[in-house]
Description:
single chain, 403 residues, alpha/beta, Rossmann fold, formyl-coa transferase, domain 3, 2 domains, 6-stranded parallel sheet, 3-stranded antiparallel sheet, 17 helices
Amino acid sequence: MSSTQNPPTGALADLRVLELGTLIAGPFCGQLLGDMGAEVIKIEAPGQGDPMRHWGPQKRGTPSVWWPVIGRNKKAITLDLRQADGQRLFKDLCRSSDVVIENFRPGTLEKWNCGWDALSALNPKLILVRVSGYGQTGPYSQRAGYGGIGEAMGGLRYIVGEPDRPPSRVGISIGDSLAAVHACMGTLAALHHRERTGMGQVVDAAIYESVLSMMESLVTEFDQLGHVRERSGPILPRIAPSNVYPTRDGIVMIGANQDTVFARLCEAMDSPALAQDPRFRDHTARGEHQQELDTLIAAWTATLGTRELLDRLEKFGIPSGLIYRTADMLEDPHFRAREAIVTTQHPAFGPLRMQNVAPRLSASPSSVRTPAPELGQHNDEIYGGLLKLDAAEREALRTRGVI
């Protein structure tokens, strides 16, 4: 399916978003809002642009293949907020906008005379979404804070990896992305609040808190039990069986830790009595004998081929599956049926595949509508059309490096 077939609609189609900042934590929030239909105007420094335009794997002499994803569904203008004229133009844009996203170090907008007090005075309905490493307040707020640091401080890094090795990392920028998702969620809540009250507000999304919010009962376990979660490799301690198991020709992921599901797994193994074994008869017992149980299951799975095992597990209603790489996703019939990966048209690459939007809305579907823009591609549209600056005014601003 080509994204050009999707109509320019979505749940947020009546909203205008100004996206400041660079890299992932702010721009991914902008991508999510753009996917849901908002008009997202990305503001970049003249002659520089977001580093995401150049980061990530790419062939020599070709653009980044990361930028088309995080830059999709956006318009792009250039503007130097360090200059007074740039600040004036930005404030003019804020007068007719609904949301501003920024992920600078706290205090940067204020240094540019564009802090919350100044912007809300111009547009009381404006929502200012501020993404940072440590939040807008507190003793660490002025520190530089990248996603990896937030992952470490929020507790994630310590528990990722093998128990006999130093902490590892998830293979994506998960801290930045979690902050962006929380910022998007806060934006939607603030929009609902504005609908009831007519007033905007500040959304303060800290990377470390966004990671912390995903840490399940980690804090409470320590508070009440003195328990410290440790690195546990491919398992969650005391959640059994839930692991990766060998087959004759590969590996399969199986999750059967619920009592009724485990009983079905025992049936699939032709060992129904195992479900009544005192070592495995309930969730607590299986957790206490986790390694022993995994050894029994692995001995069984290793006798079967991967496809044979998956078919048998499906027959008995056991959650299971392969560990996918990208090639597996592109060939999977379920991905195809749900169009989880969409083919877009890109001016440099031609047909370009990327992940589709999520989640799905039945009445106001999100979509990938436009490719990531070139630097300053929409200057004339925004400055000439929205702000009504004539060609001579725009040229003067370009000459002075304001746009």
